[in-house]
Amino acid sequence: MAIRVLVADDHKLFRQGLISLIKTRGDEVEVVGEAATGRESVRLARKLRPDVVLMDIFMPEGDGLQATKEIKELFPDIAVVMLTSSEESEHLYKAVRLGASGYLLKSLDADELFNLLNGVMRGEAAMTRAMAARLLKSVAKQSNIAERGEEVLSDREIDVLRLVAKGASNTQIADELCISINTVKSHLKNILSKLHLNNRAQAAAYAVHSGLVSNLG
Length: 217
Hints:
By secondary structure, the protein is α/β, with parallel strands linked by helices. It has ten helices and five strands; from the N terminus they run E-H-E-H-E-H-E-H-E-H-H-H-H-H-H. It has helices at 12-23, 38-48, 64-74, 89-97, 110-121, 129-147, 155-165, 170-177, 181-195, 200-210, and strands at 3-8, 29-35, 52-55, 79-84, 102-105. A five-stranded parallel beta sheet has the order 2-1-3-4-5, sandwiched between helices. It is elongated. The model has no long low-confidence stretch (mean pLDDT 87).
């Protein structure tokens, strides 16, 4: 019996290309629907009840992570597999925590994609060895932080904290990370809040002495 797949991605060209690729697999996989937003993916999952949702993260009207959460709450038996360009450990960890059955990058080889989808139907996780290793590191990191009673910093927040520890100004951080100064200020505010610190000097000292940020040289 064919694996019934819902494709959720806001990039029409990628979505259509993936659907065309799936059609080359004959009776192995069947596309039952396509969605361009998070909200639409939840609506179609409710209507079509696919076996698998191939879910992008960056979509309008509720991103793929929020859509995954809603789908898994409504239909625990539907397997949601993230198919994304994001390599951020934060996204990987959150997706798995929300119930995703796998996390794949869009650069994945086509044959490996279909092999992993078949594995999902056998109850296996759709994840390459590299992503599985990254997940294990992320889980260990979350556990260590939880033991210290701290909230989790995102990968970008750690990038900002590393530059703060090197003595970079907000302008220098913005230039280095290709983000706006307001975004830098927002990240710094979040860092101080999560780590229960009062100022950037404390943040820099924390980064150096706690080992949260390494390789500062």
